[in-house]
Give the backbone structure.
Amino acid sequence: MRYGRTSGISKRHSSLLGLIREGGYSAGSLAERLGVSEPTISRDIEFLRQQGFQIKAVRVDRRWAYRLIERMLEKDSSSDAGGAKR
């Protein structure tokens, strides 16, 4: 049963990243879209940050929303060969 739970969490993280990439979603709206609680969203965002995703809370109109800035690890690997295109 553990595999099923881990697989579900992994799918939720993937869905969460997709929504954050779209931009404009607050913790509450992310929780509603994914069918989980706001504390779960907060834990998931913290986990994704630990995995190298730069997720920032930004002001949108009169509310806060999450945005994906970039993945730090991708930035490091893309700077090889002085940034030359291949």
In short: DSSP finds four helices and two strands in the chain. The chain has a mean pLDDT of 83. Helices lie at 2-22, 27-34, 38-50, 72-78. The domain at 2-71 is CATH 1.10.10.10 (Arc Repressor Mutant, subunit A).
